[in-house]
């Protein structure tokens, strides 16, 4: 009986040792799998970071790299160029842009009453916008200088904003459009409103500058509002 008991105990101990070794193998396998998953995640993050870096690097240094697709302001080697429009016909072109200067009602009332110390806010801003439209090519590097036939800048006091609503219209008979001239007119007129009235309020906000319409040219008419 003693021999039988010893044999049973020995077999039981062997079975337990075998089970423990099996558990250890499973634990080690699980640890290896976990380490491999972590490694793959790190590699994936590193790869994504590298892709983002490469994209940003190509974007910043696009002037000397080949770019996918066709961008008119890049030549075949990826260098910046002013578009050659010499072969295009002269057509009548019009662009309308708008923007807003938000302010407190008290500031709007001062402008309406002509009590801003710097002077007539709307007239000065109107002149600034017209002047800026004529100088667009000096401000935006790849814009063509255009012989503008008309620039109109209208500033309206709007109690619903409250603030100043600015609308600019630019016209030309030429080979390229006048969207940038209209947008530049609105932008500088809005900055001038801010400059004229900033002594009364420094929390004014320039916002919502956008192209409303453009007509003429190869791309045809665009009406956004």
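^ Assign residues to that structure.
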């Amino acid at each position: 009986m003693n021999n039988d008991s010893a044999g049973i105990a020995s077999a039981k101990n062997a079975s337990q040792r075998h089970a423990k070794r099996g558990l250890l193998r499973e634990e080690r396998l699980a640890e290896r799998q976990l380490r491999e998953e972590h490694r793959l995640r790190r590699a994936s993050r590193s790869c994504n970071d590298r892709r983002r870096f490469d994209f940003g690097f190509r974007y910043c240094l696009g002037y000397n790299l080949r770019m996918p697709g066709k961008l008119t302001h890049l030549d075949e080697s990826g260098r910046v160029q002013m578009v050659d429009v010499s072969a295009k016909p002269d057509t009548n072109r019009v662009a309308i842009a708008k923007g807003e200067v938000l302010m407190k009602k008290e500031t709007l009332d001062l402008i309406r009453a002509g009590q801003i110390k710097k002077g007539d806010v709307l007239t000065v801003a109107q002149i600034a916008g017209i002047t800026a439209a004529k100088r667009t090519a000096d401000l935006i590097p790849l814009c063509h200088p255009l012989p503008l036939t008309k620039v109109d800048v209208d500033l309206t006091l709007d109690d619903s904003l409250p603030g100043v609503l600015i609308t600019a219209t630019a016209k030309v008979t030429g080979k390229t459009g006048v969207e940038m001239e209209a947008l530049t007119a609105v932008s500088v007129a809005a900055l001038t409103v801010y400059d004229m009235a900033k002594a009364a309020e420094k929390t004014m906000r320039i916002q919502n500058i956008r192209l409303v319409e453009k007509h003429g040219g190869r791309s045809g008419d665009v009406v956004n509002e």
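Residues 55-68 have pLDDT under 50 and may be disordered.
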